[in-house]
Every structure is written in structure tokens, then in C-alpha cells.
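Here we describe the complex-level prediction in full. Unlike the single-chain runs in Section 2.1, the two entities below were treated as one system.
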Amino acid sequence: MPSWIDGQPMELLSVKDRGLAYGDGLFETIAVKAGNPVLLERHMARLGGGCVRLLIDLDLALVRAELLAFSRELGDGVAKLIVTRGDGLRGYAPPQPAIPRRILQGGTQPSYPACNAELGVRLFPCATRLAEQPLLAGLKHLNRLEQVLARAEWQDAEHAEGLMLDTSGRVVEGVYSNLFLLKDGVLLTPDLARCGVAGVMRAELLAQAESHGMRCDVRDIDLDGLRQADEVFLCNSLYGVWPVRALQRHQWPVGPLTRKLQAIARDLLDS
Amino acid sequence: MPSWIDGQPMELLSVKDRGLAYGDGLFETIAVKAGNPVLLERHMARLGGGCVRLLIDLDLALVRAELLAFSRELGDGVAKLIVTRGDGLRGYAPPQPAIPRRILQGGTQPSYPACNAELGVRLFPCATRLAEQPLLAGLKHLNRLEQVLARAEWQDAEHAEGLMLDTSGRVVEGVYSNLFLLKDGVLLTPDLARCGVAGVMRAELLAQAESHGMRCDVRDIDLDGLRQADEVFLCNSLYGVWPVRALQRHQWPVGPLTRKLQAIARDLLDS
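The structure predicted for the assembly as a whole is:
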């Protein structure tokens, strides 16, 4: 279906948009099922929080209404919502007032190999490290050159995802996924205070695990800690959960907790 | 004058452009005098080097020809050249092959207060720090949220520029300028191996200073080193050189070396 810009069908954007000039904006990639955005509240909450941190004065009610209308037309697939600070004049200073721009793009559900979810995936060890920038950490902003460089490191189909460390060597995330591990019965995921994208599926799985009585911890994790995990899995808001079975020579079993959270994610995405 | 996209007058851009989606590209801001781009070779060299590092397969001869034709039409002013990896499908993986997009935007020469160059400027101490990312350091890429946040820290006219440190506290640059200092007869400028934009005027002034027999050094500089400098100045490819006279309570005199390099920059920009 055609894209929408500021609520109108349109495939072309002002060349003055600060999203192009500076990556001055945020985005959300949203699974849409039967005309409904999945995990809508979490997507809206992350977008709203990102706008506060980037000082973008967005009308969230308007964006929500446009997203709901767009999703109804899309039916089933993926809605990508981009919010930018809008057109700019010359220079980095945000215009006063700025008029944020909303962009919605629709697509089909990506067709990942079924074996990713069934047998688990192999992680490519990315050499591209994530810089530590607390002011942008957690946000799904439009400055994504690190992910572009990391994803360009491998082309083979053997690796479904890549593992990204920060410049201090901590384990952070996949290129387009968050990472969890299970160790001694505790569900662990890297702290994203310095870098990384705080995914909505990550937040949902943490909440679900806690509501199921599981012990959860968000903290720094190094490569040794990752290797010593009992189970490892990835998640995002489109594919749900993929077990991780290997990183180079190291292998992990696909365990029961991964399967349990995978089923929870599948229920969310198939609902 | 109208913008050019891929050589054609056009104000609208494909909403699928990866410059918008990921900041996946580079830019140059180029002074144009009497139809000629100033410091053309340095701009082209930086752009070409950036494309190599970002794996963008750009036809540099084509871009040069378009820039020259655009500058002839512009006459006097500023040409902003943006190069992106072009349209993308879903996901971070660069399309194979990608078709890079060239965007040219024209504007008038910015009208800075004459006192900036004559009396020197006061630096705002930005709280926004630059993350250390060697893979992107030096490039004038489109991921510029740090500069947007830094420039949003002050609105008063008393501060013409802001000083940016890296997350380790080293002195790096201005928000839209490079920084030089003179200490004991040596011209110093921060090493940009971890972060910062390697400006074309910075490169030109280093080369000119060396050709005038001055001792130059590119190295790490901390705030104490900055305060103890005999002279401090900023530069970029539009305004040339501005002396720095103050950072908070600390003041520097406007010295003879700053004036000498300012005259050299003025000759370049007025030629």
C-alpha cells in the first residue's frame, strides 16, 4: 500500500526534512495483525519517551489515530512509523517552533526461514562495536550507521543475526534484535543505559516473565557470561523469539524457558 | 534556487531513501564564490574517503560534475551536497547493488555577526558529549543527533558556538566548527580518531600552517590544556576563522597567529 506522510498518501518527502539531514527523528517497526498494531501501547510509550528525550513536540494522539487508520487499511503486515523534527533551515539548531512530520510505510510480514524459530539461529560475531552514548541509549532513533555497518559484515544465510558488543566489550544486542539469556533460573538481559535499542518485545517479555513469577535481572553482561548461559535467545517485535544455538564454536541448547517465552511472543503476534 | 536530486531540479525525495531511514550517507557544506566551489578538492577527497569507509559505491566524477554545474547556477552562496546509499528495502543490510543518491541544496551565505570574526566568540560549554566511535570518527555522515542535542542547549546570542567534549572528557570540537589552539608557538588541534568531524578548513589550515613553517601537532587535548593555551580559535568552511575569547570565566587574548590564519582563510573564501 502507499506510504502516508502527515496523514496523506504520498511517496515523496521534502528534501529539507531533518530526518534526512541529521537523522533527527525516531521510528517504530510495528507488526500489524487483522488491522491492529501489535503491542501498540508499548510502541506509543517508547515513541513518546523518545520525543521527550529528543525535545520533539509530537502530537501523540494524532500519530496514534493515523497509525490505527493506516493499520486498518494494511490488514496484515508491518507498519513502519517514522517521526522527524520536520523541515529545517540551515544548521543544527532545532527550528522554533518545529513541526514534526509523521511518515507511515506499509509492508508484508518478513518471511524468515521457519528453522530460525524451530532450531535456533547462529550469531555472526560483528566487529562493529556500539559507541557508548547515554543521551541516545535505548532510543529507536534514526542514527543507525552502526547497525548498517554491522549488518554489512556478513552476507551468508548461515547467520540469521549478528552479535554486537559495545566499545568496552560488553554484550549489548543483535543488529535488529534484543538478547536474553537464562542463567541458574534467572532471566538476564543487557542493561541499555549506554547504548542499544530498548525493544518493545524485550519490555513485553520482561513484564511477562515477571508476571509468571520468574526472576529477571537487567545488567551488564560480558562474553564469558554469555558463553556460560544455560539458554540464549533473541527477540523483536516482528518475529517474536528465536533461540540462539551458536556463536562461532560455542553452542547452547534450546531450553524450556526459551520455548515458553517463544510461545508467549507467538500468542501476542498471532492474536 | 531549486534543489537537485540526481542531477534534476526537484524538491521531493523518495520516502524509501536510506538517508532518511538510517542516516545512511554523508554530506558536505561548501562555500561557493563566483560560481566556483571553494576548497573543492578537499571536499571531494573527504566525500570519497567517507564513501570508502561506509562502503558506498559513489561515482565521484559524476558528483563533481553535478556540483560544478550547480555552483555555476548558484553563483555566490552555500551548496550543501548530500550523498545517501539510495533507496532501500526493509532492513539494515545495504541493497546489492545500491544506487547512491546525490542531493544538492543551495542557499545564501550565512550572515554571522561581524564581531564574531573581529572580536572573537564566547563558547557555550555543551553538556552533550560525543560518543567514541572510531568507525565513524572524522566522517561528515548523516548521523548528527549529538550535534542537534548540543546545539539545542543554548538559544542566547551571546554564545556563537558550543564546545563539545567526548565522553572521556577530551576537548574535541565546536558543534559546527573545528578547534585550534596555540601553545608555546605550536599550533595544536584535537585528534579526531575517536569522534568529531574532520573539517576541510581544518585540513587546509594545517597544511597552510605547515607550509608557512609553523610547528603543528594533532593530539589529545583536555580542558586544562585548552585553558592554558595562548590563543584559541575555531574554523569551518563557511566563515573561515573566529577567534575564541571566552569559555565561561576563562578568557583568551586574540593573538597574532589567529589573525594570520584568519587572513589566510579569508583569502581562500574571498578568492
